[in-house]
Structure prediction request, 178 residues.
Amino acid sequence: MKKILYPIAALLILMTAAFTFITTQNWKINKGYSIKFTGKYADGTFESMKGTILFDEKDLATAKFDVQVEVASINTGNGLKNRHARGEKWFDADKYPYIHFVSSEVVKTANGYDAKGTLDMHGIKKPFTIPFTFIHNGDKGSFQGTFKVNRGDFGITTPRGDESDYTELTVTVPVSSK
Prediction:
């Protein structure tokens, strides 16, 4: 009888652990996220984002970010600037409709975490690191990060070799466990 109970108990423990793993790591992006950008020539927001977030503070080896921002959702508060930003000389939203980040590794830092991976923007893929913090509150949480992107590295505008090549982004993503 004991020989039968041990495998059944082991199976129950594994199933419980697997369920816990899935519920604590798989986060749903909630409404209310914010992607703000500031640069020398334009400020504004991107208003459409989707993606998959797997993150457990206690098991960073399983963390994965796969997030897309819709280029056409850019909003500078100025219709002419929006049209220009979506056009061929800048983002070329028709040809490259998404900015896409996929992490390959997440590491703990003194100030939070770094998501290291590949940023695909304007048809150019480059290694990129996004620093962020995570505030966990039960089955909800919030990812927050501020970082700079050199637009010239991605063929958006002619690089000048100075600070005007960079756009600073501040991202806040509220999440809830799935």
Q: What stands out?
A: The chain has a mean pLDDT of 88. The longest helix spans residues 2-25. The chain is about 20% helix and 50% strand.
